[in-house]
Amino acid sequence: MSNVPPPPPTGGQRPPPPPPGAGIPSSQQHPPMQQGQRPPPPPPGARPQMQNWGQTPPVSAGGAHPQPGFPPQSAPQYRPIVQQQPPHPGMRPPPQGPMQAQQLPPIAAQARGMSPMQQQQYQQQHYMPQNQRPPQMQPPVSQQQQPAQMTAALTQQMGGMSIGQPQPGVQAQPPASHHHKSRAKRVYATYDQQATTAPAGSAGGYMPMAGGAPAPAPGYPSASQPGYPSPAAPAGPQPFVPGAPVPAPAPTTGGPYARSGSMGQMPAVPGQQAPAQQAPYDPPRPRIDPNQMPSPIAVHAHDQEIHNEQPYNTSFKTNVPLACTDFTAIDEGNSNPRFVRMTMYNVPHTEELLKASHLPLGIVVQPLADLSPSETPVQLIDFGQEGPIRCLRCKTYINPHMTFIDGGKRFVCNMCRHENDVPDDYFCNLDMAGRRLDWESRPELRNGSVEFVATKEFIARDPTPTSFVFAIDVTWNAVQSGMLAKAAAALKETLYNGPGLPAGTRVGIITYDRSAHFYNLSPSLDQAQMMVVPDIQDVFVPLNEGFVVDPLESQHIIEGLLDSLPSMFARNRTAEPVLGAVIQAAHEALSGRGGKLFILQTALPTLGPGSLRQRDDAKLHNTDKEKTLYEPQDSYYHDWAVKLVEQGISCNLYLFPSTYIDTATIGQLSTVTGGEMYFYPGFQADRDGARFASDLRVDAQRSYGASGVLRIRTSDGLRVDEHYGNLFMRNHVDVELAGVTSDSAVAALLQYDGKLDEKQDVYFQVALLYTTSDGQRRIRVHNLAIPCTTLIGNIFRHSEMDASMNLVAKMAVAEAMATPLRQIREKLTDRCVQILTAYRRNCASGSSPGQLILPEAYKLAPLYTLALLKSPALRGGADVPIDQRVYYMNLLRQFSVRKSMDYFYPTIVPVHSLSETEGTEDEKAGRVVLPPFVRASYTMLDPTGAYLLVHSGSLNLWLGRQVPSSFIQESLGAGSLEQVNVHVHSLPKLDTTVNQKIHAIARQLIPPRDGFVNVQVVRQGLDPNEVQLASLLIEDRNNDNMTYVDFVCAIHRQIQREIRPKGPLEPKWNYN
User: Residue 864 contacts by C-beta under 8 Å, 6 or more apart in sequence?
Assistant: First the structure.
């Protein structure tokens, strides 16, 4: 069958409207329906269509009214509607199977008898090219111009999405026949070239270069591989090929930086950049407009607008700001959301109610998170030798949610309801409301987050200031790659530029190759003394004093040593770093004092204790046995990591591999000790040096605590079932964190022990015992009170999407150690389907089956699920190296909620058409005004524009092929796009307004505190790095997964199957 209509008749006459059943064989026509009879089933693969968010289609002349049983207006919903195109006279009947992706149009009568070449020329003159046509059938021009009510209603429905009541007059989709049910299969987010139409993000449908496409990056198919049509193939939906040439720039009207006029024709979305100018070629468009899909850009912009006007009072208990929102919180008894986030802010009162919603119930804790400068710091309280007041039964610390009775002589624990006596020195009378008269002067009774001075019972050994030891690989690989020289310069800058290390921190340095080198940094010396320990089987520290010193007192010694390290080992030809021996030496040096170990490693350790073998097997990639490569080779590094935890020593890994380094095994050092991993494959100093220096500076200068122990307490009826993160646990209660920073995050999954009292709040308390960098033992306590509910609608209404996805990602990574990734991806898709199905069944059961209804709080669930499926940690395919996959698993495990949201969806900012205020400082808000963001799709990138793309700390500057030369000159100082130096990984500083605004926007997107990294310039159609940038665009088809639109359609079809009545041959499906 052809999906191209025949050419219109000559003479300017319109064809008559099609009679019923015209063009359809009698065997396929359905008889007239009787009253009560079901309509015919829809064709296979029918897609839902979109309706406008916040708009309701006008009621037709027939006076349709809302049907009874629909959800109320207070539950905003999203409803795409499935409709069918009416047949057109003269068209061939639709096939019974799936439509082929590419087919030649039918030959008209005028073209019959011509040669193949003449037929091809005739078709090119009378038919629109296939890649300029939507993948579905189009009616002829006359039918498109028909002013019928059907066309108007369809346009209104496809124009966007709707939040509110179901649309009046919408017909429900008929249930599928038994034949279709038997053929129905579960749909997952896997790429199927033949069955999937061209995506929304096919990115302009670039054709391969005439002279041959550039060599693709590893993991991407070349133009001659399957999935790319040959030059002689018929025109059709073309896959996205970044780096291909683009037509020459066309003259534009207006200023050199004016946006295209086509942008203003699209519907405006708050906080969202208008789509890019239409290219001379038209990519295939899906029936659903991707611009009308739920987008985090509009959601975040709306939330930011709310919290720009007023601060967030924690006493509200619900409607917390999103993780990516800049807000100011006022502590009124509940902890700041920067410290503690719940996956839902209405807790079900029974386990059955939670299971009915299929939502995760958990908590994500970031106990030492940095506060905004406008927020009040956490106050320190000293109760003396007796310590803070605690419940005698459950050991809960005193908090604002405890109630005082008997005139203030007793208090009731909010966790276990036990009545405790108030110490005499803590007694105070109560007012008429039952509150203590001194509650305003006591932070522990007023604030949700406080910090207590720990007493002797919490001090196992005398606390000492934190010691940082930097162990640097000086083998041949480190010297040749430039890592050694860059590490020495970065460490010198970290120690003596900017804020420096945390107060009281001491510093030691180790270098190693086949032997370990220790340095005496005593300030009494003229220069550092080097001591070599060649016996790596029985390594020891040859220094009693001078190994760890005050960096300021020994500044001249440390700077001289760092300056001489590159020349000292310039002729080193040793290639085997003895990592295991260095771990033993650091353990001996820091025992009894605690601290942090920074390891800079370039190769697989194959010598000495803890030597490893090359075990990467390409035959196991993308198979169920691949999970064996995620497990450690042996227990050596895990056992030594446990020993480091016992001494309060955390370990951060900086890996610079050129080949396989087995991150799964040596990564145990950071995973168990509460550290982090940094990964720079194929390290090049000019390309990766700035990023490494920034990571090291931020890591060493942020706030740090050692020897941490964390415990989460909950109300009776709840318990913590599992903890997730970089941590170690000796029992099921206490979480041991050898090191904890301002970015350290721990997630916990909660389970029920019984029913909760729906008349009382549900309470949570997080207590962290740790040692500060200057050697003080503290107890930081965060308290939270959440309402309890008996209504499933309240659960969905007050769910928190950001914390939920962070918890789900950590759970998926933990399960990957024992479950194939294929099954994990299926479970993630199933979980998304089950959550949305539960909302449909329990909160919108009266809606039409053809409508996809999404809860307001979870309308981004399909997008974030798709982003998780596309992440290198979980996506399919054999093109992801094992080391990189394990590294990204570690990232998901250690990410805080804010960083995980930045990782799931990139930030794209247009910088080619900045207004007068954009890129300048807003004195009232205290931050730079940013232009409207752009959705993560290649179709949104204007070829005449320039965009900054931020993803997980990396910054890219994308330059369109048709960007004006005047913009290139003012922003980068180059005469044309071809003259831009892409090998200089930094933005030049010019005395132009455009350049200064771009620098201000870049600092706002990645503040210096978060690590301002180097900038990678990517030119459209010129640089091979464009392929890597395109893989970050979540809404396009890439990374072995479908587009955002196709994934939502697949989710919708699965929900429809779930809500159908189950027959005897179709058992009900459950998610385990």
Answer: 801, 805, 904, 905
Task: Report the pLDDT averaged over residues 880-897.
Answer: 95
Write down the pLDDT at residue 1006. 85
In whole angstroms, what is the distance from residue 986 CA to residue 971 CA? 12
In the block, tokens 């309308």 appear at 859
589: left (phi over 0), alpha (psi -120 to 50) or beta: alpha
State how far Cα 568 lies from the chain centre: 43
Tell me how far apart the alpha carbons of residues 709 and 778 are, in angstroms, rounded to a whole number: 11
Contact (CB, 8 A) for 736 and 707: no
The pLDDT value given to residue 952: 81
Alpha helices in 458-549 (DSSP H): 476-481, 483-496
Q: What is the pLDDT of residue 682?
A: 93
Triad 828, 830, 831: Cα angle to 5°: 65
Tell me the helix, strand and coil percentages in the chain, rounded to 5.
30, 15, 55
Q: Which amino acid is at 731?
A: N
pLDDT tens-digit profile of 816-861? 999 999 999 999 999 999 999 999 999 988 888 788 899 999 999 9
Distance CA 1008, CA 497 (A): 13
Which tokens in the block code for residue 1029? 């940038």
How many whole angstroms separate alpha carbon 987 and alpha carbon 895?
28
d(CA 842, CA 851): 15
Tokens of 1045: 């639109």
Answer yes or no: are the C-beta atoms of 747 and 895 closer than 8 Å.
Answer: no
pTM: 0.75
Nearest-CA neighbor of 418 among 406, 402, 434? 402
Residue 1063: pLDDT band (50, 70, 90) is low
Per-residue model confidence as pLDDT tens digits over 565-574: 999 999 999 9
CA distance 91 to 955: 51
| The dihedral sign for the CA sequence 403, 406, 407, 408 | negative
